[in-house]
TrEMBL record:
Keywords: DNA recombination. The lineage of its organism: Bacteria, Bacillati, Bacillota, Clostridia, Lachnospirales. InterPro entries: DNA_brk_join_enz, Integrase-like_cat_sf, Integrase_catalytic. GO terms for biological process: DNA integration; DNA recombination. NCBIfam families: recomb_GmtY. It comes from Anaerocolumna cellulosilytica. This is Integrase. Coiled coil: none annotated. The keyword RNA-binding does not apply. GO terms for molecular function: DNA binding. PROSITE patterns: TYR_RECOMBINASE. It comes from the Bacteria. Gene3D superfamilies: Intergrase catalytic core.
Amino acid sequence: MRHVQIATKTYRDNSARSIDLPTILIEHNSDTQVLEQLHKYQLKNKIKSRTWHNKLVQAVGLLLDYIESNQENYTSAKDFFEIFTESIYSGTINEDGLDPSGLYWLPKRVETANMLLSALNGFSDWLYNEYGAVQLNPWREATRYEERLNWMAQINKSQHSFLGHLDDVHEISETAKQARNVVKRRKPCSSRGNTKDFPENQIHNLLWEGFKNIRRNDELGIIDSHNWRDIAITILMHGGGLRHSEVFHLWVQDVFPDPEDSNLAVVRIYHPSEGKAPYDFKNPNTGKYVTDRESYLLLKYGLLPRNKYSAKDKRFAGWKEPRLDNDEDKYMHVYWLSKEWGYIFMYVWKIYMAKRLRDGIKDTHPFAFVSHSPQYKGEMMPLRTQRESHEKAVEKIGLVVGKSYGTTPHGHRHAYGQRLKKAGIDSIIKQRAMHHKSEKSQDVYTEPTVEEVTDSLNNATASLDNGFVLPMQTEIDVWFDEENNLRNKYLFRRK
């Protein structure tokens, strides 16, 4: 079955608003049409993220490709899905580099394959419930080993869920007795240490040398001497701990002097849709002030929040639903670490605003960071443009660009997390500073580095050599104690 991925606009009433989704166009019996069942399933799940829809479309596309290449090689849907799953994990190419099916799939990472199979499981279950279709991956009775793993996984999920105290332990126990016919593989357990923090001893070199503009035989004025826009973005990530994508939701109005110290910057990142809008624009239809940012963008500028554009649109900027600091106005407050960054940012911000003014940036949107090239002057700055600028600045000061070196934009957020850890900040405060919903989410940013583990073990070895005995507990003891504590906790809750 030939198919191609397309972008669709679906209008469900007479209004002008559409639901924009990627989906699949198929050719069947000499007729070209949208894969109707998939599209209906996507509309049912329209509030899901763009990533979710892209993975679903990718998974269904792979399934259609496999059906096309193996039409006579299976007798039942269940058997077909088992073989298909093996091809997703292991690929379709043999040791000689041949693949008679013509797919030439390489083995996928377990994490990627699991995401694709989860997407297909959900779609297949929906087809079963809505149309009575045969389930590709039906449920069966779990083995004792699977039941034990399921039980512990669900208890762990409940333990870290905001409403986990409402879970019924009996219901959890019953659910654990079921397993899919094809079970997803367990991904290798490892530390997240592949993404390091940006080296602290190089940050000022990056800002003032990496982003420095140089022109031969010409003395540049202060506005042109540096790339103040990208310096400001880097400070928000390094000194304020923001994610790279979050920076691009900043509006010009979201930065102002601290009421108690005019040289210290206060920065707020509002929710892209529901954040409070500036109190300066009235709805032409009602005459009332517009209160939310999505309506403000639509009515005043004819734009969408940046997270609602297609991922292929250069205006797109992701939003991971971080923990907000104000429920009424719905914004994140940027916490400077150290406070000095707030002073530096205010200095940089004033110069960047002067550059915007000098370059004649028109009021076509409220976003702070814009393009200054003649061809795209004033347009929303694409994330890719800043990544490339950051990469050039890193290489300019003699560093190698890469996650493992901490020299990508995300390395600055890791540096912020590491500073929180080294400062001995309380766990709850760290959670608030990094705007995590879960206290556990910060672990990836504050876990010990390879160097720190090595230093600790070297110190421990020195202690042993000097006759000191270290308290020790085996891994099995730790695991056994944790499992018993969780089990007893939920059994007590049930009583």
